[in-house]
Amino acid sequence: MGKRDTRFSYANPIAMARARGPRPSDGPTIQDYLNRPRPSWEELKQLKEQKSKKGSSSLAAWEEQMNEKFREDLKKHRDKVLASQEGQGSSSSSLSHKKKKEKKKSKKKKKGRVSYLLFAVFM
């Protein structure tokens, strides 16, 4: 293979960069960033208060309207439930107990049917 041409001296690029010195930066330095002007604690509190006061009046009106509708629906439902409880008296708990028993019986019947069907299919 060929040898390096010795007519020109070899210039190490890293050594040349070090000899030139540090590159001037285009943007702000870290010191500039740390020394930038900042708002005081009182100014921050004032900004926060101004933002919280703004809000949307139409959004507030809509929320209030929805709250009123919800209250009306809640009152209607409450009246309906109370009326049904007054009409039934203490029998409501016994009815729910009977319904639960009926559901359990129907589930047992269904389970029995399925196992019988499976037994019949494999025979």
List the helices and strands and how they pair.
Blueprint: H1 13-20, H2 30-34, H3 41-54, H4 57-88, H5 91-122
Describe this structure in words.
The protein has 123 residues and is an all-alpha fold. The protein is 74% helix and 0% strand. It has helices spanning 13-20, 30-34, 41-54, 57-88, 91-122. The longest helix has 32 residues, at 57-88. The termini are far apart. The relative contact order is 0.03.
- Helix-and-strand structural type: mainly alpha
Low-confidence stretches: none
Total DSSP E strands: 0
Major β-sheet profile: none
The helix content, as a percent range, equals over 70%
Report the principal-axis shape: elongated
Please tell me how large the radius of gyration is.
42 Å
| End-to-end separation | 89 Å
Percent of residues in β-strands: under 5%
Estimate the mean pLDDT confidence. Answer: 81
Task: Describe what is shown at a glance.
Helices cover 74% and strands 0% of the residues.
Distinctive features:
123 residues; mainly alpha; 5 helices; 74% helix
